[in-house]
Each structure stands twice: as structure tokens, then as C-alpha cells.
Amino acid sequence: MKVALVGNMNNNFFALGKFLRDRKHDVTLFYGDHNFDHFDPWADSHDLHFQQWTRRRSWGQVYEFHKADFSSISKELRGFDLISCSGSSLAALEKANIHSHIYTPYGYDLWKENRYLRRMRPDKSKSVLQSAYWMRKALKSIPVVHMPKSISAYENRLRKLAPQTNRWDFGFPVFYHTNYLDIKKGEWPYHTHWRNEFLAFRNQSDFLVFAPSRHVWDNSPQSHSAPSSKGNNLVIEAWKIFLEESQSNNPKLVFLEYGSNVEKSKKKVFELNLQDSIHWLPRMYRKDLVCGYIQADAVMGEFTHSWSTGGVMNEALAIGKPLITKYDFENASEVTPPLYKANSVNEIVKQLLDVESNINQVEIFAKKSRNWYEKTCVEKTLNSYEELAKVV
User: Fold this and answer.
1) Which pLDDT tens digit goes with each residue over 97-132?
2) Domain harbouring 116, CATH code
3) Which end of the chain is more exposed for a tag (fewer CB within 10 A), N or C?
4) Domain limits at 126?
5) Do 148 and 196 sit in the same domain of this protein?
6) Nearest in space to 84 (alpha carbons), one of 158, 138, 132
7) Is the pLDDT of residue 223 over 70?
């Protein structure tokens, strides 16, 4: 099976491509030169093998859409058995008369990038309007949308734009975890950024919690009710209470300097006098993040919205770590992921104490969580790609 994966926000398609290649499929990843550098393939790699099957292209740049060479897109995307897109690359391919088989939204593309936004500089509005038009056109006839059950804002948007599509509502394999399964706490064989810092936190603490989500939580309209809001303020408030009841020696919580509300989070940490137990590391690449996951005793997810799957969720579960997160989906998939559900500050505290008191059962939990990720995200996606290729 010859597969084109177009777009790579969150390194989602890079992970999928590696899983497909493990099954001996011929995969080419086309990723944009406009993405954040921490979503480039090298940011999730420990070697240069990715250069053999990835191609850097300018397709999908919303603000430069009208400048794209659509004839070259058409030539390069001919001959694939399956074409799967994410982001606004779907629009570029549609204008090039290349019809994608699968659309895998990462969030913002479904929520914003197909809207006819006019309040912007004239030199950008032409591209934005064209991109939105072709993206909407593609969604009307896209055969498959791969999007797990989501928040109502995303569900309503999808129903409006792609009412006739075949929906794959199971999880997506966002993280290629195979290389990390045999690494234990206190170990890290790769020379990545912040390796020594993570190992030091591990050695200094009996209970280490990793919270890698972006800091977006304040009361501004762009943050509090937006799909990107994470509720990090609730984690800080819960940590204060947890420390008063914890039985561990020197508990530590690690945040990343990532997101529009980092400074507000730091101010809240200082106001609650938590600066000795809450530590900050810079925004980092996934290959660096994994060290944090492996060293941690627990991982914090999101607490504003309930997601049935997602980056931090799947990364934590694939590594086999207890994940504390908001979760309201009881029937989101065939098997509910093994989570520590928490919808409030008090529930976060309760789950932290529960994980802390059951550290000796971590291997049992790890096996269950990895099994959920491998069965409902990885294998189901790969099998579905292979079945679709037989009929398109």
C-alpha cells in the first residue's frame, strides 16, 4: 500500500507513518515549512532515518495559499493508493484536483481554518478566503474523517461541514512509543535536552508529577471557553492541597514554559508559595518530553474540557503512566481508557493521593494503559487504512 500523509501538526502523521512502515507499507510524509519547529520530524527522532521518507513542502500555509504551485502538488501526489490530510493542506490538494481519502483534524483546523475570516490585513485575506473555500469544498465529499468523539463545538462544526462523511471515531496513534517500552524510571539512554534535569527531579523526589500541557486557562474569551483552554490553574490549586496531605518525601510537579498564560501560572505558584515544589522547564520537543513521562509517577492532563483522546493522554497511556484528567466520555470508544478521572480541584487532589498510595501497582496499570493505546488507537487505525485501500 502506497500512502501519502500530508501535514504534520503535533507530529501526528509522523507517528502514524512509522507505524505504517512497520507493516511494510510505502509511506511518504509531506510536512509544512510553516509548522512550529517542535512539530518537525527531527523533533521526534533520535536518528536521521526520517529523511528517507519525509518531504518538506510549503503546501497548506493559509496566509500564502494563493501563491502555491498547485500544478506541482498535482504531479507529486499522483499514484498513491491512499492520501490522508490534516490541517489546511486539505484545501491545497483539493484546489490541485487531488481528492483526499481521509481527513484527520488536529483541532484548530476544523475550528478556525475553514471560516471566512475577513478582519485581517488585505494581503492575507485573499489567501485565507481561498483556503477556507477549498477546504469546505473538500469536506463536502471527503470519504472519511478520522476524529474521535469530541467536545460539542468540534462535533457541531464537523456535522455542518461534512454531514455525509464516514466517521472513524476511535483514537489516533499520535505517538510512536515502540522505542521506549523497556526504559525504566531513573534511566534515559538518549542524549536529549533536559535529560539531567528530569533525572535529578526523579532522584530528589519520592513522588514526581509531570504536567506538559500548554498553559492556557485565564478568563479572557480567547482562553477560558476556547477549545485550547487546559485548566492549568486547577492543577496549581490542587497541588497546594495535595502537599498538605502527601506522605511522600519532597513531591515535585514539573511544568513547561509553553502557552499564553505561563506568566500568570508562575504568579499563581508564587502567591501560593509553591515555588519550592513546582519546577519549570522550557517548551521542548517530543523526544525530550518522553524522558519526563518515563521518570514521572503520574501525568496531569486537561481540566477545562473533556477529550476522549489527545496528545498528552495518548503519550501518557502509551508509556504506561497514570493519567489524571477530566473525562466525561463513558461510551466514546469500545473500551474506555484506564484513567484517573478528575473534574474539580478536590477530585484532582483525591486522584493524586490515590496514585501516590498505590505506586506499587504501577506495572499493572502500565500494562492496561499500553494495551488500550495499542488496540484502540494503533491497531484499529492501521487496520482501517488497510481496509480502506482495498475499496477506494
Assistant:
1) 999 999 999 877 887 777 766 666 666 677 888 888
2) 3.40.50
3) C
4) 2-169
5) no
6) 138
7) no
